Amino acid sequence: ALAAPGCSLLSRTPLPQVLASRAPLPKPYGVPLPLPVTARPARSDATTDYYELVQREADAQILPGLRTRVWGYDGRFPGPTIRARSGRRTVVRVTNALGAPTVTHLHGGHTPPESDGYPTDLVGPGGHRDYAFPLDQRAATLWYHDHRMDYTGPQVWRGLAGFFLVGDEEEAALPLPSGERDIPLMICDRSFGADGSMPYPASPEGPGAREAFMGGVLGDVILVNGAPWPSLGVDRARYRFRLLNASNARVYELALAPAGRLVRVGGDGGLLAAPRPADRVRLAPGERADVVVDFAAHRVGEHVELRNLLGEGPQARVMRFTVERDARDDSAIPATLSRVEPLDPARAAVTRDFEFSSGSMNGHNGWLINGKPFDARRVDARPKLGQVEVWRLTSDVAHPVHLHLSPFQVLSVGGERPAGPPEWKDTVELREAQTVEIVTRFTGYRGRYVMHCHNLEHEDMAMMSTFEVV
Ligand code: C2O
Ligand code: CU
Ligand code: CU
């Protein structure tokens, strides 16, 4: 069944059993890990690569022997991976061949407002739009996905998401695992009907449905790159995995079994200053982590599982690696990866407070920021271009909060400084009843952007706010 996420509000709410009959859960580790195709530019000139993606329906084989209708960029779920270069302009023409309006957002992009996918900048069926990304930003694991107001949850659920990897010279010069040992892993959960269909569980408009959606939509099958609990054969060597939590609402705490080290080298906003070994990596919806795993610690023939410590039963599994062969490995994890200048909160011209809470509007329960639901006609903050600001985010239940345009550093979590040197992020998880302070500097572009909860059902239930850089 659609289980309740770790949200106290939802656990009091009965959930609708919307799938009349469910497909049996596929056998874990029964299918190979797919790698998303790499998009090829339609053309390139001295400054710019031009891509063309068509959003369309397609039949995918996700569960063995069954067909699943998806909405995909180029009919693929995940969409093609765009591999771009820092400082090189990338223009993506997205054509909408679906029956519903869409708008595409580059998550983590430092993007001018007209290309940022504001939730009402919709493209109707048959239309297209050119999104221009200057990419004046450092190497990082970004992703693109649909951002239609009120419908991001269902449209991403159906498959409208893909990787967008930005590289730069600093990163290319590092001896980190690369090529076939640099693998993006898009993790998300879905549920399937007996016929293989992947319906969004209910319509947010149906009677009582809004309340049942309060915690967000969870699936019972964990997909990695669109395949259920896949497996990957690996060399006895180091691999870099670019982990993305593309789930609507599920939070993961990823760990290896047997226990092993995940060395985190990057986050939302690119490389860390120095590697951080960990035995687990927590990812709320929208967050990324680049980790290096060294399979030389295992013998040929051994299995290593990637597990979710927050999941139960089948949902505690994610994927499995099988160590297949000895191999040469020239990679290394350097002690210094990059420079991350701490952004000094003493330079902040303004401190703003944002309170994330549930509330009632027009007799419906919804999610609010500072007591208000999203309204595209209203601007809630006007930071000045170039200005440093501290934003204090407070929550009732857990919310992964995402800021467009402006990468930030976390100053405090529940009153405490986070461990380790600062890193650049674009999404931060507020745990239940917690205050998180972030510091950011608004650079590059004036215009309208959003901040919102990246639990996509919360976002669709209006937990979003517009800020305008002036
Ligand atoms: Cu990944 Cu505004 O979203
Ligand atoms: Cu974003
Ligand atoms: Cu939320």
Automatic annotation (TrEMBL):
Pfam families: Cu-oxidase_2, Cu-oxidase_3. It is an enzyme of class 1 (oxidoreductase). It comes from the Bacteria. Its EC number is 1.16.3.4. SUPFAM superfamilies: Cupredoxins (SSF49503). Residues 59-170, 357-469 form the Plastocyanin-like domain. PROSITE patterns: MULTICOPPER_OXIDASE2, TAT. It catalyses: 4 Cu(+) + O2 + 4 H(+) = 4 Cu(2+) + 2 H2O. Keywords: Capsid protein, Metal-binding, Oxidoreductase, Signal, Virion. InterPro entries: Cu-oxidase-like_N, Cu-oxidase_C, Cu-oxidase_fam, Cu_oxidase_Cu_BS, Cupredoxin, TAT_signal. Monomer. Belongs to the multicopper oxidase family. This is Multicopper oxidase CueO. It comes from Nonomuraea roseoviolacea subsp. carminata.
